[in-house]
Amino acid sequence: MEPLRLRFLGALVEELGRRMYPSLTATIAELISNAWDADAENVWVEIPFGQPWTTASRIVVTDDGNGMTRQEAASRYLIVGVKRRIDGKDLSDRKKRKVHGRKGIGKLAAFGTADVLRLTTKSAQTGEITAFALDYEEIRKTQPGADVSVSETDAPPPLTPPDGAQLEHGTRIELSRLNLTQPLSEERFIQSMSRRFALAATEMAVLVNGKPLERFEVPTRFRFPPDALPDGAATEGDLALETIDGKQVRWWLGFTPRPIEEEELRGVAVIARGKMAQRPFMFHRGRGVAGQLGQEYLVGEVFADWIDDDPDITGDLISTNRAELMFEDQRLAKFLDWGKERVNWALRKREEFIEHENIQKLDLSADIQRHLSDFTQPEQRAFRAIGARLAKIPEIAPEHVEGLMGDLLAGHSDKAVREMIDAINAAQPDQQDLIWPLVAEFGLIDARRLKSIIEARLAVIAKLRALVQGGAREVPEIHQHIKANYWLIDPRWQLMDDEVGLTKLLESHFKLNRPSARGERLDFVYCLAPATSAPRDVVFLVEIKRGTVESRAPRKVTSSEIHRFHDYYVHLDEQLKKVDTYPPSLRAIMIAADYEHEALGVKASLEQIGLQFRSWDSVLAETERLHSGWLQLSKTRIQTAGPPVNG
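Below the sequence we write its predicted structure tokens.
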């Protein structure tokens, strides 16, 4: 009888390579990490940016590291899953660097981008040259228990960087039969790559088409430190220094002058051993109205080598693709709590700094001073109090505060303006939080128009509630109402399409000619952007279900409907990842009234992987709250145009 054996299929390469490293950025980052572990002093990356991809397209990464002998290639590189650090290789051979590699699967990253990898390596120790090729399609066909045949090369290409003489040792990797579709932006690629590494050029220089990869830097309006430092923190150079549960972290947080459009740059990255261990995020901080838009400006880095110091894989705190921390591990609980508090602290400091700037701007404005001179001292104090209230809204630029104050002063004789002034002065702190979302959406428009716009929107919200509660079908009644008023779901989103098939969506909006055999049509597809022409960094797939049936009982979603919704998400997510090096992030949201008992378990499991399920009550309440809050501070009984109406 044949003994039981654990076997591996060639499809494992698809799971560990193509799915874990679905972008060129992820692939190249792994190849650079390999060069770091091999003690390279220089890495040359050659990519044909801005050109259509053809069968002749090639991407080449060359380094001057230690290289490998044929035996080392066979025993280390060509074995998937070598536990490097367990084998006593926590430090590199010559330079004693803390290595990036851990699980022995990063070599498969090439197959996230290409079908063919050609490797040439020359050993620094023996001068031996080894060259071979790996074919993704051939590996996938591998049967259980069988080894993959590696094609060795008799006449390998020279080990020569694009701008220098032949190297004495190192490794050259050429990727071909690329599965990329869209031309790459050189600027965005380099910016994203610089976000992934915190390596000084003196440690290892990386050149992308001859341009040095520099440390990540972005212009900031405020940067902490040096602009502020929380209690108990020290400084080390230009970084803050703190200890969390006996473990040291160094960090900086900053806020840019304008919102950060690229999602991969926005937020706080966690760096371990000079490489990103957690892609930029907000430390899972809640996105309440008060700090919501402030987060669109947030950028920073936290350096914590201890996260990646345990040599045993069982102690690993970083996910397999080395891009996210495993925050479900209790060993990271205090670190996560600390990060939330630091982000909250930074947002509060930003508000204080902007308030100070706005008030200074008002105090120095000659126009404001001239207007104020026409009023009595008590009236001047009242107007200055209004300026101070408006200055507390961090998302209004100083010049806009000044402009709005000028409008109030110029229109002080208008009854509605006086009522608005009284409302602002009487507003509670939590109502202040409601001002910006609508100011941002409508702009600083004439106050006479604001009330009518808000009242019209409240009527639209009331109609949606009546449709949901009155047994209306999702198609056409509810669907058409939302399509005509797409802001009902979230005022920050732009509607890309509705009732659209996957093939049309991918062709029309992402220029992907990838016909889908699937027949599904998506209810709504939104994007998070200030305008439809802005980069679509986040795409929202929204599925709606009717609120009640004809008997007015809540309409319950079935488990099969949730599974189908998940299938839509997975298929669209896979396709969007092929857009280019920077695929938009996909979010999926189902809006319904209730769920069958069997569906609740499916819903709970999908929520764990990021899918969202919102109730109609919560959607309607949140949208209505935002609009009602501003209405309380707006003028009363003012028509869209013309003089105020009394009574």
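The first strand starts at residue 42 and ends at 46.
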